[in-house]
Design goal:
Blueprint (H helix, E strand, L loop, with lengths): L24 E12 L2 E13 L4 E5 L6 H9 L7 E10 L2 E2 L5 H7 L4 E4 L3 H4 L6 H10 L6 H14 L5 H4 L9 H13 L5 E5 L7 H18 L2 E6 L2 H7 L2 E6 L2 E7 H6 L4 H8 L17 E16 L4 E17 L3 E5 L6 H8 L6 E6 L2 E2 L6 H6 L3 E4 L3 H4 L6 H11 L5 H14 L16 H13 L5 E5 L7 H18 L2 E6 L2 H7 L2 E6 L2 E7 H6 L4 H8 L13 E3 L19 E4 L4 E4 L7 E3 L4
Parallel strand pairs: 3-8, 3-9, 6-7, 7-8, 13-18, 13-19, 16-17, 17-18
Antiparallel strand pairs: 1-2, 1-4, 4-5, 9-10, 11-12, 11-14, 14-15, 19-20, 21-24, 22-23
Length: 608
């Protein structure tokens, strides 16, 4: 590495690194155990690493590998008395964190070392305003007056580039979007300029464009403050973009540690190679022949609006335009993907297709009109269309065996006797890669990927022509996600099933889809084949979605990004109709939207 005299090497964020300086955080042979009926069971075993000022260390691995337990152990947040540190030490500078009492640890936590959790809604107090919570965190560590704490809180919100920070100070968490809440959590964590920041899956639940904002923000703040970051994730694209070094964990142990470029170029362990191979990449989808078949579903000029009531008498004052004038069809044996950010109307369309919300326009499933189906006709219609939801644990009844749940649709529709239903359930377990002897188990006895396979088996029970997969793989680890997607492709090939694949993950969509509809604010702004959408996107919003996808290659550098300017349209007061309606772009200082009459598309250096 060539350096000018006196210059320090840079981290990937641009922060100065001091390779010879003492680490700000040292973990030595850390072991964390849980108490069971048979004694102590290790959850993390003999983990050691060091972290330097301005460095980003990513801890990667699948669910259950020990990533989050490691972070909680460092922060002193393990749930007592069942889970505790049973070996090793953690040093923050000269302070041994594992030797501190809880009262002493409270003085360190939030001041010298802070943490951002995966789900900001559960981390924020729902009955306190954002400003009050920020000021409370500041006053817990600094002897300042309320007015000064509030001023510092406002400065923290401005530092994370939250739009209208003065207004956000007096709002409650539920009044903010997911991306805004995560910015508040980052502001709270960095308000006291900690030496170390632990970010535990901070972008997993966020849309791809909001994820891009948060990652850019962390990089900018690290460059300004020199904070050392431990980033915990299972997204190898995020690892490639953010990390200086990577630790790969499996079953509570370190599998491999290396510089990011070395790990991606020359992974030493087979587990790491398998993890990298499973990452979906834009352009990595196999070629698919064009599907030429009759439609199993047809939507024509479909709109869904929800009334808003107000006033003393509770009269309808406005309409939320959740879906506006949407038209598309889905052919037999085809995967039609519907993509867009949270709140754009994707799931509302799915609910309208299965008759769960009223709609205007035409929705036709297997030749039957959804709006006209009542009673037995609706029951017959629902044999033709089934759903697989995002959270398989929430979709399964914890009090029923999986065998009973797979057979339940057959019971509801009066198909077969008890023996035939059991046989059908057993066949479906075989088909989705599970075993027949697991039919008597309950959902909590399975992993997340196995539970999603059970949900797919249940959806297949009635031999539907169309399955709606609503964010069905977004909560899964990358290797499990790859297996579930392979299963869906196999089932489609064998049974000719059509899929409506709803997702905000463009890399996954590119790997599974035949045709794609891009949605924003209730409307389809672009519709085409996979090759058209990903090879030659026409709409600025589509380009922004694709540009925001993390690239699992640490040598890749974003040269530019599409940005729009204009006013934010409201789903209550939409701007115009049709594909020319405004399109959302998040550019780091709020949600900016281009009105059709004032569209400005610019090119800018990444990170500017």
């Amino acid at each position: 590495m060539n350096l000018t005299p006196g210059a320090l090497p840079k981290s990937r964020s641009g922060a100065d690194l001091a390779p010879d300086a003492a680490p700000v955080l040292t973990v030595e042979e850390l072991t964390v155990s849980v108490r069971t009926g048979a004694g102590l069971k290790p959850l993390v075993s003999d983990l050691s690493f060091a972290l330097r000022r301005g460095e980003t260390l990513c801890i990667a691995g699948e669910s259950g590998s020990g990533k989050s337990i490691t972070s909680l152990a460092i922060m002193g947040l393990l749930p007592p008395p069942a889970v505790r540190v049973t070996g090793g030490r953690v040093h923050l500078g000269a302070t041994e964190l594992t030797a501190l009492r809880e009262s002493e640890m409270r003085a360190v936590r939030g001041d010298r070392i802070a943490m951002i959790f995966q789900e900001p809604m559960t981390s924020l107090n729902p009955v306190m305003t954002v400003g009050t919570q920020l000021a409370e965190a500041i006053r817990a560590h600094e002897p300042v007056a309320r007015a000064e704490a509030r001023a510092q809180a406002l400065a923290a919100l401005k530092a994370v580039r939250l739009s209208q920070p003065e207004r956000r100070m007096d709002q409650y968490p539920h009044e903010l979007s997911g991306g805004m809440r995560q910015r508040v959590m980052i502001a709270m964590a960095l308000a006291l300029r900690p030496e170390v920041l632990i970010a535990d899956e901070p972008t997993t639940a966020l849309d791809v464009t909001v994820q891009r904002e948060v990652l850019d923000l962390l990089r900018d703040l690290q460059r300004e403050m020199g904070t050392a970051i431990i980033l915990i994730t299972h997204d190898m694209g995020v690892v490639a973009e953010m990390a200086d070094r990577v630790i790969v964990m499996r079953d509570g142990r370190m599998v491999e540690e290396a510089a990011t470029t070395d790990l991606f170029a020359r992974p030493a362990q087979q587990y790491t190679r398998d993890l990298l191979a499973a990452v979906p990449r834009i352009g990595g989808g196999a070629k698919r022949a064009e599907v030429v078949a009759s439609p199993v579903a047809r939507l024509a000029d479909v709109s869904v609006r929800f009334p808003l009531k107000g006033g003393v008498l509770g009269r309808v004052t406005h309409q939320v335009h959740a879906v506006e004038h949407v038209s598309f069809d889905i052919r037999k044996g085809e995967t039609f993907a519907l993509v867009g950010e949270s709140g754009c109307g994707k799931s509302t369309i799915a609910k309208a297709m299965v008759g769960l919300v009223p709609h205007e326009g035409v929705i036709e499933i297997g030749g039957s009109l959804v709006a006209a189906a009542r009673g037995p006709a609706m029951t017959a219609l629902r044999r033709k269309i089934q759903m697989v939801f995002q959270d398989p644990m929430a979709a399964l009844d914890p009090r029923m065996t999986v065998g009973d749940q797979i057979a339940e649709p057959l019971v509801i529709h009066g198909i077969g006797d008890a023996a035939e239903r059991r046989a059908r359930a057993a066949d479906l377990m075989d088909r989705v890669g599970l075993t027949r002897d697991q039919l008597g188990r309950y959902p909590h006895e399975f992993s997340g990927g196995q539970r999603q396979r059970i949900c797919i088996a249940r959806a297949l029970a009635l031999n539907p022509g169309l399955i709606i997969a609503d964010e069905s793989v977004s909560a899964l680890d990358v290797s499990v996600q790859a297996k579930v997607l392979d299963l869906l492709r196999e089932l489609q090939k064998d049974y000719g099933i059509a899929f409506l694949f709803i997702s905000h993950d463009m890399a996954v969509v590119e790997n599974v889809s035949d045709r794609v509809g891009v949605m924003y604010l209730g409307q389809i702004v672009e519709l085409g084949t996979r090759a058209q959408i990903f090879g030659n996107p026409q709409h600025p919003y589509t380009k922004r979605l694709i540009d925001a996808v993390p690239v699992p290659d640490p040598t890749f550098r974003r040269l530019d990004t599409t940005r729009l300017s204009g006013d934010v349209p409201s789903p209550v007061h939409p701007v115009g109709h049709g594909p020319e309606r405004a399109s959302l772009i998040d550019i780091g200082n709020g949600h900016l939207v281009a009105r059709p009459e004032a569209l400005e598309v610019g090119r800018a250096e990444a990170g500017s």
